[in-house]
Amino acid sequence: MILRKIKTSAWNLLNRTGLGGSVQLYMGGALKQYGWFRSYHTKQSVDLNGDPLPWYTYPFILFLKPRIKPEFVVFEYGSGNSTRWYAAQVHHITAVEHDTEWIKLISPKLPSNAKVLDKPLGDAYVKAVQSTGEHYNIIIVDGRNRVKCANFAVDYLTADGVLILDNSEREWYSKAKEYLKERGFRRLDFIGMAPIVGIETCTSVFYRDGNCLGI
């Protein structure tokens, strides 16, 4: 009874201040639909059903999902639920990780078309994309040493390939953005909330004409 009175009083206060409608919109709208509340409470990047999601902004996930094709080959700096999400939709994904303990946790959850390379931080990590001997439709830079990784990995995209840089609003990633621009890539920024956290961030995709996402 006491708890109910507290909730009622809080709701009345929000309505008097004009915030009730906004809170109701978020509680019953997009954030609930996207599964943000579940991701926040579980501290896992998942959707409403508990299925894995990349830890990107929701606007970018919605943009990317219908453009993924089953023949794509993907490389990822950093691994996690994003690796699982891509694996369910593409031909093959390779990720690189420097944290051996994390690799032990994530590897058993991956299907046969996904693998994680164990590379220490430094040149071995940055150049992991080269070690596979492949070129990729999508390269995701979402791990450590992001400027060096983005600048190196761009040469291992297919002719129609795109590069994704997460948390691209961070000032210390500006050199990567400048370098990719010099290499002839244009950029689309997707700003918004992401799973787990309650802050606004940005995921950017770098692309050229005739790219595999049809931008």
Attribute tags:
215 residues; alpha/beta; Rossmann fold; 2 domains; 7-stranded mixed sheet; 11 helices; 7 strands; 38% helix; globular; disordered N terminus; FkbM family methyltransferase; transferase
General description of the model:
It is a single chain. 36% of the residues are buried. The protein folds into 2 domains: 2-34; 58-207, Vaccinia Virus protein VP39 (Rossmann fold, 3-Layer(aba) Sandwich). The protein has 11 helices and 7 strands. With 215 residues, the chain is of the alpha/beta class. Helix 10 runs parallel beside helix 11 (174-182).
CATH classification, class level of the largest domain: Alpha Beta
Q: How much helix, percentage-wise, in residues?
A: 25-40%
Total separate domains: 2
CATH architecture of the largest domain: 3-Layer(aba) Sandwich
| Widest sheet: strand ordering | 3-2-1-4-5-7-6
Strand/helix succession = HHHHHEHEHEHHEHEHEE
Rg calc:
19 Å
Shape: globular
Residue runs with pLDDT of under 50 for 5 or more positions: 1-15, 17-27
Strand portion, in percent?
15-25%
Write the CATH fold name of the largest domain: Rossmann fold
Largest sheet: 7 strands, mixed
Derived from helix and strand composition plus strand pairing, the structural class reads alpha/beta
> Number of helical runs?
11
The CATH superfamily of the largest domain appears as Vaccinia Virus protein VP39
The strand count comes to: 7
Mean pLDDT: 87
Tell me the distance between the termini: 55 Å
Organism: Dyadobacter pollutisoli
Protein name: FkbM family methyltransferase
GO biological process, one term: methylation
InterPro entries: SAM-dependent_MTases_sf
